[in-house]
Design brief:
The complex is a heterodimer. Helices cover about 35% and strands about 15% of the residues of chain A. Chain A is of the alpha/beta class. Chain A is globular, with a radius of gyration of 23 Å. The model of chain A has no long low-confidence stretch (mean pLDDT about 95). Chain B starts with a strand and ends with a helix. Classes of the chains: A alpha/beta, B alpha/beta.
Chain lengths: ~500, ~280
């Protein structure tokens, strides 16, 4: 696995230094001494009241006001050796954009981010900043709370969109090279944007009927409104990217077919579209969903608006969501919004091992989600119609750390109990989708059905074929997928111009 | 968006739809399916391939009118567009020289099995088709079947064309006995027909392939809505199938999962009728 926190390249360091030494930055640093800056408290993101928002699908976070954003930006010490950038998989010049916010130059700040990140309104909402840029923030190291970099990123990209000032950068002369990107998720869209900006002709092939991948089918409206995603995708279209939806590479055409049509480079970003199940009795009962299906019905197919939209989704008195990651939080909060009296997270480890973002766990708690921790389902029971009606659970203890470094859950004998549930969502992870591997002869695969790449270049063993995101990682985050994509795009550009 | 070239009622409640989708047409193989969504607010449903024409760039399916989506499809006319027509999906049917193959088809399956019949004949098999319907006026594509099959038989409660006055499975057992030795049976149609065919062939030890029709959403293995059990293992019909060995399928589970949204389907249809019908 590639390192998530990395040494900056010489090029990146030079870029940061040039900006750091600009006159306006020097002047701005002088306006307030670091000691004073450190006294300012972290500004809180306004959010809708929990008992109001848990009944609809509108966005929970309301975004910073310009005043809050500027106050937050004043907290940044504008370090000479900024650690935050090393925590960012796409190397955004964070101090520069934050200082532009402080200065009140919100549009310039947005454009600064867009130099290295084509989808900031999305990243500002769904990135786990607390384990990336914000984790290594100097303020945090000094024992305080880090600068709210993610909230600021969200603020400036929203500001740009609302002001109608979305800028298309000047594009170089066309290279006349054709690139095929497989999958319109975070990795695919990022590669598409980067390569279009370098003058290549990019076509993105997407199996579903809307762009976004997990951003459209997985992440709910209350966390990432579809209008935001649409605006980011429209931006890519304006860069010249063509998106062909309802096109399943592997079935509608194989990579070899596309090569014969004149595509010279490929980026496989088909994602982790294969849900895992626990293989326990009763898992195929009616009312037991994979998180992928449950969320796809509600998000992509708009089942929350049934019957105005035709796709239904089951409603529950008690919904149990198995798992402790972000997908589990999205599922359980969705079940609550669809009217579940009780919406319960069932997770086999304890709170500290939960992979979900802290913010998501907090939001879930505020919205009335129950947590049954150190608990695992053993089997499901159905009624006479085959609909799930109960689940048998077992309590777990924690043993020695396993390969992931987290303490291994150990079943406690005799602790079994039965809980009445009429909806179960299994959110225990996904595996790489097998369609491309199955239909691309010679493509080298790893143990878990993932595509193997050289981490330095994201190249597969096939000439001109690159890969990134969850098809390589198995099931990671949006921003790691985008980090892979940035590396791949630079390498693909070199390959195309060789 | 893909355009409708033809939409025609074949027999009461069974319609044919031909869609302009040249890229899909180029790749179609017998036994595969497409996913269609009739309008922007519609549901994605799978339809088995019934034919395709690479030169015309078209793909044809036959469907039974059951719920909102299929009602919406019957309201489409040539020139109309659908927002989703994606495929071909699923694994193609196994086509080889088996010997004598008996096809047991009913309902939309008469359309779906036609490309299989054609391919089996081309592969050098003796192909016997048993078409099944409630009544004689519900048969269609008889001439198509006659053009590639060595024998075409019918079972229904009428007797104008059908000799049997009975439904599958009994007529199927008769055919299997008359045509001995039969190397394989392929059954496509409603779940009951496929279940009954598989039950009938099991004691005779004749390998029987069925094309499963569970509820699907994406059709590419992403959601798992279509999971079914074959030989004791959970499979995704969209990427592991749709063809399975009928003797290995957990039919009770399939029947149960197909009914999962029964109440919602009625509610959806009532909603649609209120909006659309005068």
């Amino acid at each position: 696995m590639a390192e998530d926190k990395k040494e900056l390249s010489g090029e990146d360091k030079a870029r940061l230094k040039a900006e750091f030494e600009k006159e306006w930055r020097k002047e701005l640093r002088k306006t307030l001494p670091p000691k004073e800056r450190m006294k300012i408290a972290r500004q809180k993101m306004p959010e809708r009241p929990a008992d109001e928002r848990n009944r609809d699908f509108n966005e929970v976070n309301q975004g910073l006001t310009p005043e809050l954003a500027q106050e937050e930006a004043r907290r940044c010490l504008d370090c000479a050796n900024p650690q935050c950038v090393t925590g960012c998989p796409v190397c955004i010049d964070i101090p520069c954009f934050v200082k532009l916010v402080e200065k009140g130059d919100f549009l310039q700040a947005a454009w600064k981010i867009k130099e290295t990140n084509s989808l900031p309104a999305i990243c500002g909402r769904v990135c786990p900043q607390e384990t990336q840029c914000e984790e290594v923030c100097t303020l945090k190291k000094a024992g305080g709370t880090p600068v709210a970099i993610g909230n600021l990123e969200r603020f400036v990209s929203d500001y740009e969109r609302w002001s109608g000032s979305v800028k298309i950068p000047p594009l170089p002369p066309p290279s006349r090279k054709k690139v095929a990107v497989i999958g319109a998720g975070p990795a695919g869209l990022t590669v598409a944007g980067d390569l279009a900006k370098l003058g290549h002709t990019v076509t993105v092939f997407e199996a579903l009927h809307e762009s976004g991948g997990v951003l459209i089918y997985g992440i709910p409206e209350f966390r990432l409104p579809k209008a935001i995603l649409k605006a980011e995708v429209d931006y890519l279209r304006r860069l010249g990217v063509e998106i062909r939806t309802s096109f399943v590479v592997g079935l509608t055409a194989t990579i070899d077919d596309l090569r014969a049509e004149g595509y010279q480079a490929f980026f496989i970003a088909s994602g982790a579209g294969l849900p895992n199940f626990m293989k326990i009795p009763g898992e195929n009962l009616v009312g037991v969903y994979s998180a992928n299906e449950y969320l796809t019905r509600v998000n992509l197919m708009r089942a929350y608006d049934f019957p105005a939209h035709d796709t239904p989704v089951m409603k529950a008195k008690t919904a149990a969501v198995i798992g402790g990651g972000n997908v589990a939080m999205d599922s359980v909060r969705t079940a609550k919004r669809l009217g579940a009296g009780r919406a319960v997270i069932v997770y086999r480890r304890s709170r500290v091992e939960m992979p979900a973002r802290i913010e998501e766990v907090h939001h879930a708690e505020q919205e009335g989600i129950e947590f049954q921790l150190l608990t695992t389902p053993l089997r499901y029971f159905g009624d006479e119609h085959g609909r799930v009606r109960a689940m048998e659970c077992q309590k777990m203890g924690l043993g020695e750390p396993d390969a992931s470094g987290r303490r291994r859950p150990v079943p406690i004998e005799g602790s079994e109990y039965t809980m009445e549930v009429d909806l179960v969502v299994c959110a225990i992870g996904q595996s790489p989708n097998p369609l491309i591997p199955q239909t691309t002869p010679g493509l080298k695969m790893g143990k878990w059905g993932n595509v193997e790449v050289d981490w330095a270049t994201m190249a597969t063993n096939l000439p001109g074929v690159y890969a990134g995101g969850d098809i390589v990682r198995g099931g990671a985050t949006v921003i790691l997928a985008m980090g892979d994509a940035r590396i791949a795009a630079a390498q693909m550009d070199k390959y195309l111009r060789r | 968006m893909p355009k409708i070239l033809t939409r025609q009622r074949l027999v009461p409640n069974l319609h044919l739809i031909e869609v302009h989708a040249p890229e899909v047409a180029k790749k179609c193989r017998p036994g595969q399916f497409v996913i269609i969504m009739p309008d922007e607010k519609g549901e994605r449903i799978p339809l088995s391939l019934a034919d395709w024409d690479v030169e015309r760039g078209s793909v044809t399916s036959v469907f039974l009118v059951v719920g909102t989506t299929t009602r919406k499809l019957t309201a489409l006319n040539p020139g109309d567009e659908v927002p989703v027509f994606v495929g071909p999906l699923g694994r193609p049917s196994e086509i080889a020289q088996f010997g004598t193959v008996v096809l047991a088809a009913g309902c939309f399956g008469i359309g779906a099995l036609w490309p299989v019949a054609r391919a089996l004949k081309a592969a050098g098999n003796r192909v016997v088709a048993l078409l099944d319907a409630k009544a004689d006026y519900l048969f269609y594509w008889k001439d198509r079947y006659r053009s590639v099959c060595d024998k075409v038989l019918f079972s229904s409660r009428d007797h104008a064309v059908a000799p049997t006055k009975d439904f599958i499975p009994n007529p199927l057992v008769d055919v299997l006995k008359a045509e001995e030795p039969v190397s394989r049976v392929i059954s496509v149609g409603c779940t009951y027909l496929m279940y009954a065919s598989s039950q009938a062939t099991k004691p005779l030890g004749i390998k029987t392939i069925v094309s499963l029709n569970p509820i699907m959403v994406d059709g590419t293995g992403m959601c798992g809505a279509c999971r079914c059990t074959a030989a004791g293992k959970t499979k995704f019909a969209c990427v592991d199938g749709p063809d399975f060995d009928g003797h290995q399928v957990d039919w009770d589970e399939l029947f149960m999962r197909r009914k999962a949204y029964f109440d919602d389907e009625i509610r959806s249809l009532c909603h649609w009728e209120e909006l659309e019908l005068p």
